[in-house]
Design a protein that fits this description.
Layout lengths: L11 E5 L3 H13 L3 E5 L2 H10 L4 E5 L7 H10 L8 E5 L4 H10 L3 E4 L4 H16 L6 E4 L2 E4 L4 E4 L2 E3 L3 H12 L7 H9 L8 H14 L8 E4 L3 E4 L5
Parallel strand pairs: 1-2, 1-3, 3-4, 4-5
Antiparallel strand pairs: 6-7, 7-8, 8-9, 10-11
Helix pairs in contact: 2-3, 6-7, 6-8
Length: 238
């Protein structure tokens, strides 16, 4: 069993789930591990609770009454105050395209039902560690992109670039190692962490989201895809 949280400051997890038995099971296991837990049974209630007291992480069911988990995630990402809020999507869907849709909407991770609590807890811990880690103060620059690690802001050609938390970490890692090609597995270990198990295609989804955010019309695509090898931050064509 994973270690119980020892910190005096207990992270707050918002469980958004309309299935009462599952919500009760999640609350019991999360509280047993030292988390504080709030619950919401539909999307609108979830957004209200987030606005009233922002949690450290949202465990968000895909299928919800009134408003789907996908729409809740979209609204979380649209709001500046919650743009970086960690979200794990919980889904009963097993189709790969559905998982990709969840990630494209802004979820940081997803887990399919039925799942083991140990697997879910590992993902929660890994995501909270990445979210709460203090960045080294300073600035990274590549080509016409500037990343301020202290203020967590990115600009390209002077215009602000809005990135989700995973895309920010992905760009930060690539800017720290410009022109070096990394495989999907290497990026998973560096950005997601070696103790979290996600599919390599997850990297492709977040690379597409990163490209969409940093590349305006007429700008050079600095994220290079190297066939059968991986990705690199580079200004040179393949």
């Amino acid at each position: 069993m994973p270690d119980v949280i020892s910190s005096l400051t207990k992270p707050l997890v918002l469980v958004v789930e309309d299935e009462a038995a599952l919500a009760t099971m999640l609350r019991y296991n999360l509280e047993k591990q030292g988390y504080r837990v709030e619950e919401a049974t539909d999307g609108q209630e979830a957004l209200t609770r987030i606005a009233e007291a922002q949690p450290d992480l949202v465990l968000l069911d895909w299928m919800l009454p009134q408003m789907s988990g996908l729409e809740v995630c979209r609204q979380i990402r649209r709001r500046s105050a919650t743009r970086d809020l960690p979200v794990i999507m919980v889904t009963a869907r097993t189709d790969d395209q559905d998982a990709v849709r969840g990630l494209n909407t802004g979820a940081d991770d997803y887990i399919a039902k039925p799942f083991s609590m140990d697997a879910l807890l590992a993902r929660i811990r890994a995501l909270l560690r990445r979210s709460n880690s203090m960045p080294v103060k300073g600035q990274l620059t590549f080509h016409d992109i500037t990343m301020d690690l202290a203020s967590h802001r990115v600009q390209r050609n002077g215009r602000p670039v809005h990135l989700g938390p995973t895309e920010f970490r992905l760009l930060e890692f690539l800017m720290q190692h410009p022109r070096r090609v990394f495989s999907r597995e290497e990026l998973l270990d560096a950005v997601w962490g070696p103790d979290i198990h996600v599919e390599p295609r997850t990297v492709d989804v977040h690379i597409r989201r990163l490209r969409k955010s940093i590349n305006a019309t007429g700008e050079l695509d600095v994220v290079r895809t190297v066939r059968a090898a991986g990705y690199a931050l580079d200004t040179e064509p393949v």
